[in-house]
Amino acid sequence: MDLINEIKQGSRWADKDAFPSTQEWAMEVNKWLAFLKEEKQFDRFLPRLKDVPKKRDETLSEISAAYFISKIKCYHIAEWEPRGEENQIGEFAFNVPDTTVFCEIKSPGWESEIVKKDKDSPRLKQPKYINAEARFYNNARDIRNSVEKAYPKFKIDTPNLLIIVDDLFVSLNDDMFGAKEALYYEQLKPPYTDTKPNGCFANKDFERLSALATLNIQQSKQIEYHWKLFKNGFALCEIPGFFINERSVYEIAVIQIQTPHQFS
What is this structure's pTM? Predict the structure, then answer.
């Protein structure tokens, strides 16, 4: 079943980029879309999947996170669009033994890194990667911004998980310091967390958020789902320990290709 052609027909992104770029990526994305069909969510996501490339990719990031939780980590999706604090809508909730986890997804992209310095920069109209381009990056700020945007949705009486599926210049899972700085460091100075003196998990400021995870999907010799989870020691409701301690890299299929490709 070629569901990519189904979302391409009449879309705002048709023939505007190389998506999905390789046969292997097409197969993986088709798995995500078939998963939506199984969950009876395909029609709800379809308008966003047909939108401009940036919106399409953000939507696929959300879908990939749900697919990862359901099909790779094997936790049942209990509800789509669950209601959080003040009736705000989350992405989905999933079951783990003895509890249900409320989940929100954020997908910061490389464009945001450009906009921080110049919202009208011509660089926004160029490809993500340009040969020999050197660039300073600050993933800690993107993590902090994602936490602050998602936090109002989280309730006090349930475990809450924020998954960040990024499309930054340097992926969060390839950054050794960004998440630790944004979450755990104390007495920080700008620009790491803007005007905030401490990491998000260094005190009770974000106690409703149980944990934050980063998910990055890469293609080298196989499709790999790179997963890291960071626990909030001040959380009101903890994520179960067995969920935290699972492995961090999931190899999906052995494939042969000429050049590596990354999608987030």
Answer: 0.84
Mean pLDDT of successive 10-residue segments in the chain (264 residues)?
89 90 90 97 97 93 96 95 97 95 86 51 46 55 91 96 85 78 74 65 95 89 89 94 78 44 37
Q: Look up residue 216 and give its two tokens.
A: 């990055």
Q: Give the HSE-up count for residue 31: Cα atoms under 13 Å, Cβ half-sphere.
A: 16
Strands 261-263 and 211-219, sheet pairing? antiparallel
CA-to-CA separations, 47 to 7, 8, 221, in angstroms, rounded: 9, 11, 33
CB 194 within 8 A of CB 223: no
Q: Which residues contact 173 (CB under 8 A, 6 or more apart)?
A: 214, 215, 216, 226, 227, 228
| 209: enclosing H helix or E strand | none
Residue 169 DSSP label: S
Could you give the angle at which helices 42-49 and 23-38 cross, rounded to 10 degrees? 140
Region of 81 (left: φ > 0; alpha: ψ -120 to 50; beta: rest) is left
